[in-house]
Amino acid sequence: MLWPTHQYERWIHHCLLLWFCFAGIVRTSQPPQPSSQCTAGDCPKGRKDPGVLLMQLKPKLHRAESNKTDQAEDTKPSCCSRCGGRGWCSPVSRNCHQLQKKLYYEPCESHPPDAVTVGALDWSDEFDGAAIDTSSWALLEGEGPPSLQRYTSRRDNAFVENGTLKIVAKCEDLGSWKYSSARLTTNKLREWGPGHRIEVRARAPAGRGSWPAVWMLPSQGVHGSWPNSGEIDIMETTGCASSKVQAAVQTGAFNAAGKSQKGNHFYTTTSAWHLYTLDWLPGRLKWYVDGVSYFAFAPDVQNTAEWPFNEKFFLNLHVAVLEIDYVRVYELHEAHA
């Protein structure tokens, strides 16, 4: 496959450097760790449990139901009459807004139910075993963005215990790197394309120092290097903006490098449990939080520059503070009368 370009990696480096500058403590159930070897200023002062960021994946048996998502509201707040049925409105100021910038903003745009049928379970990981299932997940080794951190496959950074998968980032001295972390991927092991629903039930504990992300990259990169072959961000949030999650796509025509990427934010309490869902059908993608659709991508022009999503993609779990109940992939079909 073709990975993101050096230009994109440098852009990610700058973003993550800000993350590390504001990194803070997240308490976990882990026993106290040895003192951090980071140089002064790399780790926050007053840290009682040095250098642990946690991502957990835990099983929880829930069965997705057909058409459970996209429950449209019949009654809209009165201020929406001024917004032309688009965006959000404030019940306080009664002003219209393009994005839900505050938790109490009300949605003005109805998202009618997609006519879909959820089929058989294609794959899932319940993390019930004693170790990471290497038939489904690979742990990357090497330098990760930014250059301050290193991905490892050590048990210290990723392991299964008591029915959960834990991904841990630590502040420690590894020579050129000041942080260790892990990234799990299904690359070359599991892949999916149009005709699937991907569900991740997760929560992201509040606290600076986190950047949880569940995202997908193309297995083959048949349309060229990033972003031409596409990227799908199912869920992403940061510790510095822990009250919102975002969805996005990156394509040749729409991408962060050109400041033209397509996406949207959904404001919620990310430390609570939520079900993040991506419905992937031919010609359109749709994102949900707890059954509420907040972003859809279906370009009018279905060329590869705008829609490279007819190919197979693999799943990534990015190092962060994150707990996940389950990861499940279902077959998804258009419903026909």
From TrEMBL:
Gene Ontology terms describing biological process: carbohydrate metabolic process
UniProt entry tagged with the keyword Signal: yes
SUPFAM superfamilies: Concanavalin A-like lectins/glucanases
Gene3D superfamilies in the record: 2.60.120.200
Molecular-function annotations in GO: hydrolase activity, hydrolyzing O-glycosyl compounds
RNA-binding recorded as keyword: no
Alphabetic keyword roster: Signal
Domain GH16: 69-335
InterPro entries linked: Beta-glucanase-like, ConA-like_dom_sf, Glycosyl_Hydrlase_16
Leader sequence residues: 1-28
Family under the similarity heading: Belongs to the glycosyl hydrolase 16 family.
Protein name, UniProt field: BglA protein
